[in-house]
Specification:
2 strands; 5 helices; two-stranded antiparallel ribbon; mainly alpha
C-alpha cells in the first residue's frame, strides 16, 4: 500500500511542478513542457491531439487524473514501439494487423 501511495504522491508532485500557473490543471504548453522533459520529442500537432483526447471538460486543460493517464499511455505505447524499432531509427514498418495487435496487446 505504501508503494501505491508513494507513487501517487510522486504523480501529485510532478503535476504541481508542471502546473506553472497553479490552476489545478495543465494547459497545452504545460503538458508539452512536461512530456518533453520526460524525454519525448513530439510535434505541436501531436500535443493538440493529446489535448483533444484528455481534455474531458472541454476547457483546454487536463486534470490531474487525465495527466497521469496521458503520461502512462505515452510511456506504455513508446515501450511497445521501441520493441519493434530494433534499429532505433524512430521508424517501424508494420502491417495494419500488427499495428492493431501492438495497440490492443499493450497493457495500460
Amino acid at each position: 500500500s505504501s508503494g501505491i501511495n508513494a507513487e501517487y504522491g510522486d504523480w501529485q508532485n510532478t503535476f504541481r511542478y508542471y502546473d506553472r500557473d497553479n490552476s489545478g490543471s495543465i494547459d497545452q504548453a504545460e503538458l508539452q513542457t512536461a512530456i518533453t522533459s520526460f524525454g519525448y520529442n513530439l510535434s505541436p500537432r501531436f500535443y493538440s491531439t493529446l489535448m483533444r483526447k484528455f481534455d474531458r471538460a472541454g476547457n483546454k486543460t487536463i486534470t490531474f487524473d487525465d495527466f497521469i493517464q496521458c503520461c502512462v499511455l505515452i510511456q506504455t505505447l513508446s515501450v511497445a514501439f521501441q520493441r519493434k524499432d530494433t534499429s532505433r531509427s524512430g521508424r517501424i514498418t508494420i502491417t495494419y494487423e500488427e499495428f492493431m495487435d501492438l495497440v490492443f496487446s499493450t497493457k495500460v
